[in-house]
């Protein structure tokens, strides 16, 4: 087992200015794993209720996602999140979060996952992230994502996890809240003193900036007229980024740059449809051809 991902597998209700989708499949772990599955066979650690569709489980299997760490809780309902986007797709409001089966979830890592090379702690309660972090023996790389909710409500637990990660995925608002710094470059440098060696600063439709020791790199987001639903863009960025690093097996500044482009490629597909819709037809050839388009876009 090389890449292991812990996070949420969810139902999402999404409202955009033109459309509303009720209880479609989403979740941080779902998006990360689907994106990573174009590079490697990721293993997931997550929980769902009895109501989670078998067709989606079959789709995960078809994408060769290892489901030994997916727990189905009898008599319970799947985690549900509802979000609303305004005219600006970078602005999102959480309307409700129903923890359901997450309430009593205590992640246990299957023995086969304990030797993972890369561990992705996707967005969930930092206490659960820590529990998983403790169970994986010596990953070559641990990465973490989070949201404002945890920065505001579980700051101490979050900082504890952050201290032991190598790569941190976050947006402007999140690093400002963590560090108290308005200036983004100062905030990024501050984050690098809290533990991570690399910070991937997600800037929505403006792309990402990667900061590390002797490393600063920027990737624009793929210019597109089709922004249907931004949900999962950040997660699929992380899945593509780590899936690629896992596949090449080298964590060098050059590979980190390429990984950031693959992350952007996967995020650019995600927003073209609601939820995981685009992944139902996305091929490896599509991924390679958009990577080539990114290369042309950035060549000078
Ligand atoms: P992203 O758009 O990449 O930030 O991720 C969106 C996904 O995060 C959605 O599919 C949600 O199901 C999931 N999500 C939202 N809030 C939470 C939460 N509190 N814990 C775990 N997952 C969440």
User: Would you tell me which CATH topology applies?
Assistant: UDP-N-acetylmuramoyl-L-alanine:D-glutamate ligase
**Over the alpha carbons, how many angstroms does the gyration radius reach?**
18 Å
Looking at CATH, the homologous superfamily is Ribokinase
Number of helices: 10
Strand-pairing-aware structural class: alpha/beta
The string of secondary-structure elements, in order, is EEEHEHEEEEHEHHEHHEEEHHH
Bound molecules: adenosine monophosphate
- Mean of all residue-level pLDDT scores: 96
CATH class assignment: Alpha Beta
The spatial strand order of the largest sheet comes to 5-4-1-8-9-10-11-12-13
Compile the SSE list and pairings:
Layout: E1 3-6, E2 10-16, E3 19-26, H1 28-36, E4 43-49, H2 54-62, E5 66-73, E6 80-85, E7 92-98, E8 118-121, H3 126-135, E9 141-145, H4 148-153, H5 155-163, E10 167-171, H6 172-179, H7 184-192, E11 198-202, E12 208-212, E13 215-219, H8 233-248, H9 253-270, H10 284-298
Parallel strand pairs: 1-4, 1-8, 2-6, 4-5, 8-9, 9-10, 10-11
Antiparallel strand pairs: 2-3, 6-7, 11-12, 12-13
The protein binds adenosine monophosphate.
Explain how this protein is built.
The chain has 300 residues and is of the alpha/beta class. The chain has a single domain (3-298), classed as 3-Layer(aba) Sandwich (UDP-N-acetylmuramoyl-L-alanine:D-glutamate ligase). Helices cover 36% and strands 25% of the residues. The protein has helices spanning 28-36, 54-62, 126-135, 148-153, 155-163, 172-179, 184-192, 233-248, 253-270, 284-298; strands at residues 3-6, 10-16, 19-26, 43-49, 66-73, 80-85, 92-98, 118-121, 141-145, 167-171, 198-202, 208-212, 215-219. The protein has a nine-stranded mixed sheet, sandwiched between helices. Helix 6 packs across helix 7 (184-192) and helix 8 packs antiparallel against helix 9 (253-270). The longest helix has 18 residues, at 253-270. The protein is globular, with a radius of gyration of 18 Å. The mean pLDDT is 96. The structure holds adenosine monophosphate.
């Amino acid at each position: 087992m090389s890449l292991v991902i812990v996070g949420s597998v969810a139902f999402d209700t999404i409202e955009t200015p033109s459309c509303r989708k009720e209880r479609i499949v989403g979740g941080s772990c779902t998006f990360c794993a689907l994106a990573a599955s174009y590079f490697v066979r990721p293993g997931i650690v997550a929980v769902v209720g009895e109501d989670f569709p078998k067709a989606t489980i079959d789709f995960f299997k078809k994408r060769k996602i290892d489901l030994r760490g997916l727990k189905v809780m009898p008599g319970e309902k799947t985690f549900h999140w509802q979000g609303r986007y305004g005219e600006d797709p970078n602005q999102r409001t959480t309307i409700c979060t129903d923890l359901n089966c997450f309430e009593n979830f205590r992640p246990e890592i299957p023995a086969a996952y304990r030797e993972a090379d890369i561990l992705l702690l996707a967005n969930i309660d930092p206490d659960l992230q820590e529990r998983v972090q403790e169970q994986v023996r010596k990953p070559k790389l641990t990465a973490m994502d989070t949201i404002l909710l945890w920065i505001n409500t579980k700051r101490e637990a979050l900082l504890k996890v952050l201290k032991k990660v190598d790569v941190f995925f976050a947006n402007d608002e999140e690093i400002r809240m963590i560090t108290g710094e308005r200036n983004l470059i100062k905030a990024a440098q501050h984050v690098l003193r809290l533990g991570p060696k690399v910070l991937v600063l997600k800037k929505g439709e403006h792309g990402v900036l990667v900061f590390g020791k002797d490393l600063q790199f920027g990737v624009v987001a793929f210019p597109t007229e089709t922004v249907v639903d931004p949900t999962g863009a950040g997660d699929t960025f992380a899945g593509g980024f780590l899936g690629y690093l896992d596949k090449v097996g080298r964590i060098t500044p050059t590979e980190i740059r390429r990984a950031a482009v693959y992350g952007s490629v996967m995020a650019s597909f995600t927003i073209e449809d609601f939820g995981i819709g685009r992944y139902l037809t996305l091929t490896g050839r599509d991924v390679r051809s958009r990577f080539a388009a990114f290369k042309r876009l950035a060549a000078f």
